[in-house]
Specification:
Layout: H1 18-45, H2 47-50, H3 54-97, E1 104-105, E2 108-115, E3 126-133, E4 136-144, H4 152-168, H5 172-194, E5 211-218, E6 223-229, E7 235-238, E8 241-244, E9 266-270, E10 276-280, H6 282-285, H7 297-305, H8 312-327, E11 335-342, E12 349-350, E13 356-357
């Protein structure tokens, strides 16, 4: 006996390819062409258009006004559709570059936001990232020279390097070296693209380009380690109010000068349970009002410290509301804020400010990669 196996019915899959886009473009051009042909035909062939009376002139004007209005609305609709598509693609690309941070990471509550100086950009020359690693929670906050869309390439180079080095390098100083090499490589590539010199590598790629970078490492016991290259030190919100995080003199920014051979990681005490760190870029400290007065970030943070509980979202909301009220519009430089609050539980280990803490006993979330 011969068995015949029935064939399953084939299913056609239609893929939107270049033919569909070509038809859409042809349709977009066909409508204005038809309207123009109608206007020309009316002018040349319609007997009413050949008359010189007042009624004929009014009718002719009405026809051409209707055709012109239709063309204007058609062009406007096409431009709006194209603008929405461009904004959608740009927004997706910007979210991938400066991705949203998780609200909680290894016992720390996290919140961050940025205000770009360019109206058409959601991000600019400021960068931040928080990653949970086997070495602790590692944080980067940086500020690239310039602002807006022109600085996105440098931001991408630094963030990409940090996201890899934070997991690979056991020491914070090696992470900083990786960032320094990534910045130098990016500037060389950009210099070759802007000023081709027969394939030769320029000796000094872009002498005026630099980036300030602050690296933090928060150990499971709350101990803070830091490396600072020309960036403002963060503020600490605790039981005693608001104070600047104690640290040594910062290193020069990345780019113009080579890093020292022996980098010494700075110990900055501990982030105790209930305390918050506020990292920021100099766009917040340098913001001025119409009378030239600088924005006072510590004063706003002191007002926030009086609220209970001091959540990272509440700090961001209060600071950005005060910033917008102070500058009265869009800032002249990019502004970024990152708030970390220690929500870990207590244990018998004594803290540097007379408080106790421990690593969280609840299951740790998946590291943010």
């Amino acid at each position: 006996m011969i068995r015949i196996k029935a064939r399953a019915p084939t299913r056609r899959v239609f893929v939107r390819g270049p033919h569909r886009r070509s038809r859409r473009r042809a349709l977009a051009l066909a409508l204005p062409t038809v309207w123009g042909a109608v206007a020309v035909t009316y002018k040349l062939a319609c007997p009413l258009a050949q008359q010189t009376g007042l009624g004929a002139r009014i009718a002719t004007s009405a026809v051409f006004f209707a055709v012109g209005t239709g063309l204007v609305f058609h062009v406007r609709r096409a431009l709006v559709r194209e603008l929405r598509q461009v904004r959608k693609v740009a927004g997706a690309a910007q979210r991938v570059l400066l991705r949203p941070l998780p609200p909680r990471l290894d016992g720390l509550a996290v919140a961050a936001a940025q205000l770009s100086a360019d109206r058409g950009a959601a991000i600019g020359g400021d960068l931040y990232e928080v990653i949970a690693t086997e070495h602790g929670v590692r944080v980067v906050m940086g500020d690239v020279r310039g602002h807006g869309l022109a600085a996105i390439g440098t931001v991408a180079a630094l963030l990409g390097s940090f996201r890899e080095a934070a997991h690979d390098e056991p020491g914070l100083e090696r992470v900083l070296c990786r960032l320094d090499r990534a910045l130098a490589r990016h500037l060389r590539e950009r210099s070759r693209a802007e000023h081709p010199a027969g394939g030769q590598e320029p000796e000094h790629p872009v002498a005026e380009e630099f980036a300030t970078v602050l690296l933090l490492e928060i150990r499971p016991d709350g101990e803070l380690h830091a490396l600072n290259c020309g960036h403002p030190w963060p503020y600490l919100i605790g039981a005693h109010g608001v104070e600047a995080l104690a640290g040594a003199e910062p290193l020069p920014p990345l780019g113009p000068f080579p890093l020292p051979r022996d980098l010494e990681v700075i110990r900055c005490g501990h982030l105790l349970p209930g305390e918050s760190l506020v990292l920021y870029t100099d766009g917040a400290a340098d913001a001025r009002d119409a009378h030239g007065r600088f924005f006072s970030l510590p004063s706003v943070l002191r007002q926030t410290a009086g609220d209970r509980p001091v959540t990272p979202q509440a700090v961001l909301r209060t600071v950005f509301t005060a910033l917008r009220r102070h500058i009265g519009g869009r800032p002249s430089d990019d502004i970024a804020l990152l708030v970390l609050r220690n929500e870990r539980r207590h244990t018998h280990a004594l803290g540097t400010r007379g408080t106790t803490w421990q690593a969280p006993t609840d299951p740790q979330p998946t590291p943010h990669r």
